[in-house]
Amino acid sequence: MAAIEEGKVSDGLAGPLDQMECVSFPPVNRFAICGGTHGNETSGVYMVREMQKQKIEKVGSVSITTVLSNPRAVDACKRYTETDLNRCFTDALLSAPITDSTPYELRRAHELNAQLGPKGSEEAVDLLCDLHNTTANMGLCLIFYSLDWITLHIYKYIQSKITSVPVRAIQLDIAPSEAYSLEAVGKHGFAFEVGPQPNGVLRADIFNMVKEGVDLTIEWLQQFNSGSTFEGGEVEAFTFAKSVDYPRDPATSEIAAAIHPQLQDNDFKLLRPGDPIFLSFSGETVKHEGEELYPFFVNECAYYEKKTAFHLARKSTLTFPSIRVKKD
Amino acid sequence: MAAIEEGKVSDGLAGPLDQMECVSFPPVNRFAICGGTHGNETSGVYMVREMQKQKIEKVGSVSITTVLSNPRAVDACKRYTETDLNRCFTDALLSAPITDSTPYELRRAHELNAQLGPKGSEEAVDLLCDLHNTTANMGLCLIFYSLDWITLHIYKYIQSKITSVPVRAIQLDIAPSEAYSLEAVGKHGFAFEVGPQPNGVLRADIFNMVKEGVDLTIEWLQQFNSGSTFEGGEVEAFTFAKSVDYPRDPATSEIAAAIHPQLQDNDFKLLRPGDPIFLSFSGETVKHEGEELYPFFVNECAYYEKKTAFHLARKSTLTFPSIRVKKD
After folding, report:
1. What residues contact residue B204 under an 8 Å CB cut-off, 6+ apart?
2. What is the distance of C-alpha A52 from the center of its chain?
3. Which of A50, A205, A304 is closest, CB to CB, to B261?
4. What CATH number does residue A42 fall under?
5. What angle do CA A212, A218, A222 make, to 5 degrees?
6. Residue-by-residue DSSP string for B165-203
7. Is residue A3 pLDDT above 70, yes or no?
8. Which of B119, B111, B259 lies closest to B181 in space, CA to CA?
């Protein structure tokens, strides 16, 4: 079931779902759209630049802030220059003192937290959406930490409007204080993760998916702020279970196999015991063992260094109530 | 028509093609297979490592040298560290003195030229095959400089054996002294260019294409050296005509459009005047103008920095004679 953080339900209707009719929330007026948090994930870079060029700062009730999160990494067309910016937004790292030896990305995280947060405060932007790409065949995914009903409704809305590509939700079950990525800075937040797209390459089809996701989010915010009631219901979400590393040569620790062709490009297709997952360079097949789970981030480029060939998830059904804006 | 470099036909049969029955060549015994010339093109890296692990140094009449061309770039998973190694093999650069300020890759080019060449000399390996990947949807391509009949026959052989993916030939019409890439160091040489594969990602399907190409090359060399006659005939090849840059913002020089979805992934599909080639971030279509040509390297990651969105080629038919090994 969808968790909701304390303080977000402002009208006292929180309680067991079957007792709730409609939950009301304050308006979601201040919307931050960030790109280039990873400098070689191009959709967000060009999306943010285009919105800045067109001076899109206000759409109806929604004020929009666009941010190029990691300009040095964008210029170098690298994921990051010194450390992964999108692992810098835990409470501990955001409260650590800045010294001469602080990596560029951690200093940048403090700047972003000052501009868009501070994380966990009343001053934080109402909604933060961070734009990412993956080399995995994941279509359009929304990634959340603890689910909240605003972001779940946005997900449901986008899913109902986009039919050209699968739209899915991924939940990382991590406490707010430990939440490490940029979207955790907003009062509400999620990442768009869109692929497949090679790092450093810009594909029009993927760019257009990201643009459609952003446009639909703004559309939803407008309708929500203007008083529309959004009906409750159910959605499916994938909850992170564990990561799987590549088979490695015991002598050199180098990878000894590639993702099996039957798994490659089949993100979110249920993996059963005995299904092939790796093909070694000498031609042997490695099979999945253990419980049935859903693979995602299959052959994501950036995860080689994190020793992850793919993640596995459980699928669950999330039930959530109708919501509407809180009247003054 | 296929050009053949002076000195390669050793039995005096060179001449107008209709006068030739069968051209003979010395055995092609010494075969060098190079990978990691670009450090983030993984097929060659893992192919070379696997052959070294399996100690594949001799297959029948063929002695095999495997080389990881740019180990620093491989370790960093970058195309190169200081300058593009695969632009360092011109006669001028290979004869330039090495100084303290010489980039790593140029020093490495001198080492490779000493190991596998020297370029243009009798000591050079008989055949050099360099393994590359592209983010473009190019299938399996063999890239040659001036075509010679050994490499054309290898191309024809591979094309006749691989049916799962298109196999094509690309000719760069560049004089030997100006030939800048590693394969120019061998007496005969070509690059395998295989895609689509993101930089830094290893796909089993692409790895297997590269492996099949290498295995078939070795098979051909064995048959050639053992006295088989290979029948002449015709093949199609694509000859580089020109490069096309992205539309750019006049103020910032940043790219203002992506490859159009109708061109993306359609390498080698004839481009006619009026066909869409770019889609701007604000939604406008840019169309192809001028003569009908064949696009290739469409949206190749590494060519963003070279200001190339795609190359264009002419298609031609190459006629070549039967060949056999020269008897002592």
Report:
1. A258, A259, A260, A261, A264, A279
2. 22
3. A205
4. 3.40.630.10
5. 140
6. S-EEEEE----GGG--SGGGGSSEEEEEEEES--TT---
7. no
8. B119
Q: Which residue has the tokens 């930490």?
A: A145
Q: How many domains does chain A have?
A: 2
Q: Are the Cβ atoms of B281 and A255 closer than 8 angstroms? A: no
Q: Which amino acid is at A239?
A: T
- C-alpha distance from residue A41 to each of A20, A139, A194, A202, B129 (Å): 41, 15, 10, 8, 32
What is the pLDDT confidence band of residue B141, given thresholds at 50, 70 and 90?
very high
pLDDT 10s digits, B228-278: 999 999 999 999 999 999 999 999 999 999 999 999 999 999 999 999 999
Following DSSP, what letter does each residue of A285-316 receive, concatenated? Answer: EEE--SS-BEEESTT-GGGTTTT-SEEEEEEE
Q: Tokens in use for B116? A: 């596998």
CA distances from A271 to A194, A290, A293, B33 (A): 22, 10, 5, 37
Joined tokens for residue A278:
């790796």
DSSP-derived 3-state class of residue A191 = strand
Please give the residue range of the domain that contains residue A254: 244-311
Amino acid identity of residue B112, one-letter, is L
Tell me, yes or no, whether A92 and A232 share the same domain: yes
Whether residue A256 lies inside any domain: the answer is yes
Q: Which amino acid is at B241?
A: A
Interface contact B203-A49, CB threshold 8 A: no
Asked if residue A103 has a cis previous peptide bond (ω within 30° of 0), the answer is no
A303 and A184, same domain (yes or no): no
* Residue B170 included in any domain: yes
Q: DSSP readout, A20-87?
A: -SEEEE----EEEEEE-SSTT-HHHHHHHHHHHHTT--EETTEEEEEEES-HHHHHHTSS-SSS-GGG
* Total Cβ atoms within 10 A of residue A237: 20
Smallest Cβ–Cβ distance between B199 and the set A49, A200, A260 belongs to A200
Note if B193 is an active site residue: yes
Q: Is the pLDDT of residue A243 over 80?
A: yes
In a mutagenesis test of the B interface, which of A41, A134, A201 is the best target, namely the one with the most B β-carbons within 10 Å? A201
- pLDDT tens, residue by residue, A60-89: 999 999 999 999 999 999 999 999 999 999
What is the C-alpha separation between A124 and A186, in angstroms, rounded?
5
Query: Are A91 and A199 members of one domain?
Result: yes
Give the angle subtended at the CA of A308 by the CAs of A307 and A314, to the nearest 5°: 150
CATH of residue A257's domain is: 2.20.25.160
Q: Is residue A85 part of a domain?
A: yes
Are A69 and A212 members of one domain?
A: yes
The CA distance from A2 to the nearest CA of chain B, in Å, is 35
**Does residue A23 sit in the same domain as residue A75?**
yes
Do the domain assignments include residue A136?
A: yes
Indicate which residues of A carry an active-site annotation.
Answer: 193
Residue A31 contacts residue A62 (beta carbons within 8 Å): yes
Spatial neighbors of B325 by CB under 8 A, at least 6 apart, are B24, B25, B26, B27, B224, B225, B226, B227
